[in-house]
Prior knowledge:
Chain A is of the alpha+beta class. Chain A contains seven helices and eleven strands.
Amino acid sequence: xxxxxxxxxxxxSAHPGPVPGHGVQRNLEVCKLVxxxxxxxxxxxxxxCVEWNDMPFSPTTFDNTYQTMPETRWNFWNxxxxxxxxxxxxxxQWLMRKDQCMHCADPGCLAACxxxxxxxxxxxxxxxxxxxxxxxCEFCISGCPFNIPRFNPETKRVYKCTLCSDRVGEGLEPACxxxxxxxxxxxxxxxxxxxxxxxxxxxxRENFGIEKAGVYDPQSVxxxxxxxxxxxxxxxxxxxxLPKNPEIPWSYTVWKWLxxxxxxxxxxxxxxxxCLHYVTAGPRRTQPEPxxxxxxxx
Amino acid sequence: MASAVERxxxxxxxxxxxxxxxxxxRGELLRHPVYSRALHWMVxxxxxxxxxxxxxxxxxxxxxxxxxxxxxxxxxxxxxxxxGLGFVVFFGLQALNWLQPMIWTPADSNxxxxxxxxxxxxxxxxxxxxxxFNAGQKVQFWEIVGGCTAYLITGIILWVGAPTFGRILxxxxxxxxxxxxxxxxxxxxxxxxxxxxxxxxxxxxxxRGAVSEAWAWTFHPAWYKQMTGRDPxxxxxxxxxxxxxxxxx
Lengths: 298, 249
């Protein structure tokens, strides 16, 4: 939970009306830039994340790679994904990608979430979970194209990277950025980071001969507030399963905002129907009915 | 004790019959034995638990006031699959119990054609070929059989979750699960209405287990004939004569 005074809310899950306070302040979109070409896999960002968020030490899994564990956990939000990629010429390339919440401009988790206020998107682009409103239905997990939200079976709530909204709200950079020793992680406005990323990709293409170098900022989710510089932007999948074209099922939006209330009302028409039947057609009684009042006998 | 229904699981029902009791007075017929009634109310209990806990997941922003009854949104969400499982299991037993009388017959097709007359109360008595269950009851029964299958498949997918079954399958299951629930929500109003206010004398068939003969010849004439051997229309006319001549208003 971040400081609401410093962070203006832009979108709230399952909240149909206008967002209170939106547009009051000027808010620049923030962005985290991850340059996979200069990441050395030191895991300082993993440690910084665990430290800043007061999370316990997580048991690691050694599987003959440089990866700490197979996937992020509910209390381990930042993981360097490692992949030994064999290039076409037979040489080997080690790919390190910092895996964490991408903070999409059009967040699938927020679209899927049915609970009012469990997921918010701030005007600066950070997508944050408010666990006090989370009912643990886990729909956000299916809404996320990056496989990020994690369910904690003990508290029955879902957790993920906050982009250190508590630090950003106070004007600080996220903990992982502060810890990075190579400068592979940068933090600033989205425009600045996009500019630096494009310049870096251009440098890689022109000066280093890495022809396919490019920036990963998928427009299918409206862009993300974590962007990558990749050696080969044409195949992000090789970087530990980064989706080439992340998608959010349209059914979430249509179902939640149109069909749920409309069809729910239709189901209530069943109640209306039987009430109307009672007052118009009336109940069906066992035959023979006793003679009615005023009716002649025999 | 005369049994109305050829039951699939006779042994279980015999056990229930030795525990419970159905008193059938003169002028009455045994409608539902203890086993059917016990299953019915277990199904009803789990249905409403699953339904009300489902509201808290379906529209949490609307039913937020409701969730504390189940110990809060998270506990409600954790219990909902178990309620649903209870509903599916008990309804499954009931389905086996009622499989035979629920088989669709030509009489039911006729009933569906005449439904408008029956719903508008134009026809005071059911058609003479209406058996233990009428076509409306059978439609609801088979809807719930289909609905339970949909619940079970999609429910397990939602329960186990996206990491195992994939996001798209979960997104589809979510919609199917909801549609199935909405159909049953619409159906439960009709079910409760028809068994209470809509047809007075019906509710006791699920509480005491016995119904009046007049109820039987009015709403299930073929079943009445099967049970008593008398013609339902004649029985009704005889009762009418007795009523008009025997009792002074």
